[in-house]
Structure to design on (495 residues):
C-alpha cells in the first residue's frame, strides 16, 4: 500500500515520502504526517532474531513506499555500517529491573545519530528520484545534540551543505567543542545569542519566507531541514523501539504480545512520538511515559490539557531537553484529533498567545518531570544500586519512571527507557552526582574519572577532543540570523 504525507494544518496535497523528506516542512507551515500509520504483525517470529539493519528495512519499507527496495537497503547499509561502536547498534542493558535502550553508540554519543546517519542518504536518494539538480542547504537549530549529529551525518556529502545554529549559552561545553571542532568542507556552525526556541523559530521563519526561498532557488539552492520536523528523522526512530521489544522477547524477559511501558526523556517530542507511532503500528505499549526536566511544559500539558509556553525558561543539566515549544507535539494533536483545522487552530493560538487548551484523550501518555535534584539523585542511586551509570537526560527518564511506578502502582509491567546520551557526553554533572565532593573542573579529568568508574576506555568519539583545532567562530544575534544565512549561501552578491 502506498503511503502519502499531508500537512497537519489543512493543505491536503498528498506528497510521496521522498518529496516530504526533501521539503522538510509543508507549505502552510504544518508538519508532514502519514495519511495512515501502517500496521506490522508484532507476533511474527521473523522479527525476533533480526539484526538492526534488517528490522530497519522492514519498518522503512512500510512508510517510504516510493523508495525501491534497493534504494532503502543501500541507504540503511551506508548509514549503519561502521558508524557504531557496538555490534548490535542498540544494546539493551538491564539495570534495577529496567531496560535501558542504549541509543548513544554512534559518532556523537547521543540518540540523534540513530536517524541523522540515515537522513543524508534518504535525502540524497530523494533528490535523485525527484530530478532535483539544486544544491541542498540543510538548516538546523540545535539544543546541542542534533547539531553535531547533523554535521557528522552530512559532512562531505556531495550536493549538500549544512548550517547549524546553537544557543550560545544553552549547550554543554562538550557539546559546543564537538561542534566547533567539526571538520568537513560543507559545514557551517553558528552560535546564536538566544535560546533554542529563538533559534528554532528563526529557522522556521526562514523556511516560511517565500521571498528568500525564491531568491535562493533562483541561485540553484533549496532549503531542507535535519530537525525532527523532517519525517526522514522521525521514521528511522521507530525502529529501535521495536528492536528493544523484540530483544526482550528473545531474552525471555517478556512473552510475545506482552504489554510494556516506554519511558522517553523528552524535549522536542520527536523521540517519544516515534514510540507512539510504534504503538500505532501494533507494538503492545501500556503507557508512554513522557519525562521532562524542570522545563515541564509537557508534564503540565498531559496533566491538564493546557499547553502554555509563557513561563520562565531554565537552563538545566539536561540541556537537550531545555525546550518550551515541543514542535512534534503538533503531529500528536493531529493524530489524536484527525482534524487539520483543529490542529491549525491550536498552533495559531500557540503562535499568537503562547498557549492553547485541547479537548483530546491524552490517556495513552503519562506526563512526569524531574527536578535538578531528582536528576542528580537518580544518577547516584542507580549507580549505587547497580553500578550502571546514566547521563543526565536518561536520569530524568529513570527518575520519572520511578515516580510513575510509585504513584500508579504499576510495578509488574516491564519498562524500556530510551537512554538518549552517553554519560561521557555530560561527564561533569554525572561525576558530580556520583561524588558531590569531586572538585576537578577540567573536562578531560572528568572523562578520566568516569572511565575509571565504568572500568572501560574513554570512547574514541570524544577522547582527546580538546587537542583538536577550533574551526568555527561565528556568532550571530537573533535578528541577524536571516541575513547571516542569506549571506553565507549567496555571498555578497545575494543582497
Ligand atoms: C534531543 C535529545 C533529547 C530530546 O529528544 P526529543 O526528540 O527532542 O524529545 C533527549 N536527550 C538527548 C540526549 C537529546 O539529545
Amino acid at each position: 500500500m502506498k503511503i502519502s504525507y499531508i500537512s497537519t494544518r489543512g493543505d491536503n496535497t498528498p506528497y510521496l515520502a521522498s518529496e516530504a523528506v526533501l521539503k522538510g516542512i509543508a507549505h502552510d507551515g504544518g508538519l508532514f504526517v502519514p495519511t495512515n500509520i501502517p500496521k506490522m504483525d508484532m507476533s511474527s517470529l521473523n522479527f525476533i532474531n533480526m539484526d538492526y539493519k534488517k528490522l530497519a528495512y522492514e519498518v522503512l519499507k512500510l512508510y517510504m513506499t516510493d523508495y525501491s527496495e534497493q534504494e532503502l537497503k543501500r541507504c540503511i547499509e551506508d548509514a549503519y555500517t561502521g558508524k557504531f561502536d557496538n555490534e548490535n547498534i542498540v544494546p539493551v542493558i538491564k539495570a534495577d529491573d529496567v531496560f535501558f535502550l542504549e541509543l548513544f553508540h554512534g559518532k556523537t554519543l547521543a540518540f540523534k545519530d540513530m536517524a541523522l546517519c540515515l537522513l543524508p542518504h534518504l535525502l540524497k536518494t530523494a533528490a535523485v528520484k525527484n530530478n532535483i539538480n539544486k544544491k541542498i542547504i540543510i538548516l538546523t537549530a540545535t539544543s546541542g545534540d542534533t547539531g553535531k549529529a547533523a554535521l557528522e551525518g552530512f559532512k562531505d556529502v556531495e550536493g549538500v551543505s549544512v548550517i547549524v545554529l546553537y544557543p550560545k549559552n544553552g549547550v554543554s561545553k562538550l557539546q559546543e567543542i564537538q561542534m566547533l571542532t567539526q571538520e568537513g568542507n560543507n559545514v557551517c556552525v553558528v552560535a546564536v545569542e538566544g535560546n533554542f526556541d529563538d533559534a528554532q523559530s528563526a529557522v522556521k521563519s526562514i523556511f516560511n519566507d517565500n521571498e528568500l526561498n525564491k531568491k535562493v532557488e533562483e541561485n540553484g539552492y533549496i532549503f531542507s531541514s535535519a530537525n525532527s520536523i523532517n519525517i526522514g528523522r522521525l521514521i528511522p526512530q521507530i525502529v529501535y523501539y521495536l528492536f528493544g521489544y523484540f530483544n526482550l522477547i528473545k531474552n525471555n524477559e517478556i512473552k510475545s504480545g506482552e504489554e510494556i511501558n516506554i519511558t522517553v526523556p523528552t524535549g522536542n517530542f520527536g523521540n517519544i512520538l516515534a514510540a507512539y507511532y510504534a504503538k500505532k503500528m501494533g507494538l503492545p505499549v501500556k503507557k508512554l511515559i513522557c519525562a521532562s526536566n524542570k522545563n515541564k511544559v509537557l508534564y503540565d500539558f498531559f496533566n491538564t490539557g493546557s499547553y502554555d509556553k509563557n513561563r520562565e525558561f531554565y537552563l538545566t543539566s539536561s540541556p537537550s531537553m531545555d525546550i518550551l515549544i515541543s514542535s512534534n507535539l503538533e503531529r500528536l494533536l493531529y493524530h489524536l484529533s484527525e482534524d487539520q483545522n483543529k490542529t491549525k487552530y491550536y498552533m495559531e493560538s500557540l503562535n499568537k498567545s503562547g498557549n492553547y487548551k485541547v479537548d483530546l484523550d491524552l490517556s495513552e501518555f503519562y506526563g512526569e518531570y524531574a527536578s535538578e535534584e531528582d536528576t542528580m539523585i537518580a544518577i547516584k542511586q542507580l549507580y549505587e544500586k547497580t553500578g550502571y551509570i546514566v547521563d543526565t537526560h536518561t536520569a530524568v527518564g529513570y527518575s520519572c519512571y520511578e515516580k510513575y511506578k510509585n504513584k500508579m502502582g504499576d510495578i509488574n509491567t516491564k519498562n524500556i527507557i530510551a537512554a538518549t546520551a552517553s554519560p561521557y557526553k555530560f561527564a561533569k554533572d554525572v561525576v558530580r552526582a556520583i561524588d558531590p565532593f569531586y572538585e576537578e573542573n577540567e573536562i578531560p579529568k572528568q572523562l578520566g574519572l568516569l572511565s575509571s568508574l565504568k572500568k572501560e576506555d574513554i570512547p574514541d568519539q570524544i577522547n582527546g577532543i580538546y587537542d583538536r583545532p577550533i574551526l568555527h567562530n561565528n556568532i550571530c544575534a537573533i535578528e541577524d540570523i536571516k541575513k547571516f544565512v542569506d549571506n553565507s549561501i549567496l555571498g555578497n552578491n545575494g543582497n
